[in-house]
Amino acid sequence: MARKNNKTKNSRNGSNHKGRRSPQEPASNPAAAQRSYTIPDYRLEKPNFQVKQIRSGDEVRYEVTGDLSAPVPPIRDSKYLDKQQCLEIYRWMLLNRKMEQALENLYKQGKVVGGVYFGLGQEACSCASAYALGPDDWMGPMIRNQGSLLVRGFSARDIMMQYMAKAGSPTKGRDASSHFGDIERRNVVAPISTLGDLIPVLSGVALGARLQGRNIAVMTYIGDGGQSTGVTYEGLNFAAVQKLGLVLVVENNLWAYSTPAEMQFPIKDLAERAIGYGIPGVIVDGTDPCQVYDAAHEACERARRGEGPTLIEAKMMRMKGHAIHDAADYVPKPLFDYWRKRDPISRFENYLLSKKWLTSQDNQKLIADVDRELEADRNAAVASPMPEPESAAGGVYCEEGCHEIKPKYGIPKAGVTKSKPATPKERETAVHLK
Q: Residue 150 belongs to what H/E stretch?
C-alpha cells in the first residue's frame, strides 16, 4: 500500500534529552570516574512483577509475584502519525490477527503442512514497525512478524498458501513455513531459522547500499531468547562500527519457548545492550502501535542520515505458545490475564474511537471489509493446487541464466578503475567499508 512518510519534527533518537545522555556520551565527572547512561523509556506503565521457578520434588512450575492489578494505560499520542496513517496501521493489525486465526483453523482441518507460529499480542509491534519503512528500505522478518509481511506487500493469500505448501506460494511449495522473502520488488529478506543470523545479513544489505552511494534503513527482529546468541552481538557490533542503518527490534515477549526472561538474563531491560555498542537504545510498550511507530520512525530517519544503528526493545507478552503444538501450560494464568487486558487491537480500537477518528459504524465497515478480503484470500488459497511432483527438482539450485542480481541503487563504488586489465594484486586491494 502506498503511503507517505511524515517529516521528522523533532527527532530524539540518539539526541540528548534534558538531564539525559545518549549512549555515546558518558557523564563528565572525573572525580567519580564512572560513566552513566540513560535509556529513554516511552512506556506509560512499567509492570512490576517477576516470574519464579518453583520446584517440588520432580514437579517444576512457574509462579508470578508482584502487582497485577494496575489499570490499563492509554495509548500514547504519536508525534508523527496522522489520522489516516493510524487507521491504516489498525487495519493491518486486524488483518494480521484474523489471518492467524484462519491459519489456526486450517491447521486443525489438516490443511497446513507442518506447524504454525503465531504473533498473538504482538500485532502492534510487527505492523507499526514495518510501517515506518520507506520503499527503498529493507526488512528481514522473523516467524512472528507476519503482520510486517502484510504491510510490506505480501497478501494473506501468499502467507496461507505458503503454510499449505501450495504451488502458488512464494516458494512454490518447497517450504511449508515462513522462509520466504522477495529481494526484487518488496525488499524483504527471507527469515533464517538460526536465530540472530538475520542481523549480520541485514547489516550486509545496508553495507551493499552504502557501496552503491545510498544510506538506507534495514530492519530486522530478534526475540528475548534469540538476542542471547553470539551472532546477534557480532552482527550488531559490525553495524555499530561501520555506522550501518540497522534498526534492530528486540521483541521482549517474556518467554523464550518455555524459559521466562528472569532465567535468561540478569538485566531488567534488554535495551541496555545498546550501551556496549555505543548506539542509541530505547524502550517502548510493544502493545502500543504509536510508541512502536515513533521509535521505528526516528531510528529509520537516523539510519538514512548515515548515523548508524538503533536498538528498540518492545516489551509485550506472547499470548500463545512457541508454536501451535505448544499449549503454553507453563505460563502462570494470572500473567495471561494481565496481558489480555492490554490487547493491542482492542486498545487501539478504543483509542481511535475516543479521538473520534473512527465511528462505531465506520469500525464495523472496516472489520467487514477485512473479513471479506480474508475470506476471499482463504478460499483462493485452499482451492489452489498442490505442486506437481515433477517440479520438485526445479528451483532448488541456481542455474546459469535463471536470474541476474543487479545493483539497486547505483554502480558500486569499489574496484579497480584502470583501463588495463587488473592484475591479481590489484584485484586484492583492500576496500575501506566506511
A: helix 146-151
Q: 360 lies in a domain?
A: yes
Q: What is the DSSP letter of 176?
A: S
- 8 Å CB contact between 103 and 267: no
48 forms bridges with which residues in the sheet?
Answer: 67
- Separation between Cα atoms, residue 206 and residue 303, nearest integer Å: 9
CATH number where 134 lies: 3.40.50.970
pTM (two decimals): 0.87
| Burial of 86 from C-beta contacts in 10 A (0-12 / 13-18 / 19+) | buried
Asked whether 351 and 124 are in contact (CB, 8 A), the reply is no
CB contact at 8 A, 295 and 282: yes
Q: Is 266 part of a structural domain of the chain?
A: yes
Sign of the Cα torsion 186, 289, 347, 64 reads positive
Categorize the per-residue pLDDT at 35 as very low, low, confident or very high, splitting at 50, 70 and 90: confident
Q: What is the pLDDT of residues 158-193, one digit of tens each?
A: 999 999 999 999 999 988 888 999 999 999 999 998
CB atoms within 10 A of CB 270: 26
> In angstroms, rounded to a whole number, what is the distance separating the alpha carbons of residues 378 and 194?
30
Counting every residue, how long is the chain? 434
| Residue 144 belongs to some domain of the structure | yes
- In a domain? residue 186: yes
Residue 431: DSSP 8-state = -
The domain tally of the chain equals 1
Helix axes 230-242, 198-211, angle to 10 degrees: 20
Q: Can you say whether residue 113 is alpha, beta or left, with left for phi > 0 and alpha for psi between -120 and 50 degrees?
A: beta
* Gyration radius of the chain's alpha carbons: 23
Is the separation of the CB atoms in 86 and 357 below 8 Å? yes
DSSP state of 53: E
Tens-digit pLDDT profile for residues 52-98:
999 988 899 999 999 999 999 999 999 999 999 999 999 999 999 99
Domain that holds residue 295: 48-387
In tens, the pLDDT along 332-364 reads 999 999 999 999 999 999 999 999 999 999 999
Of 389, 386, 392, the residue nearest 164 (C-alpha): 386
Judged by phi (left if over 0) then psi (alpha if -120 to 50, else beta), residue 57 lies in left
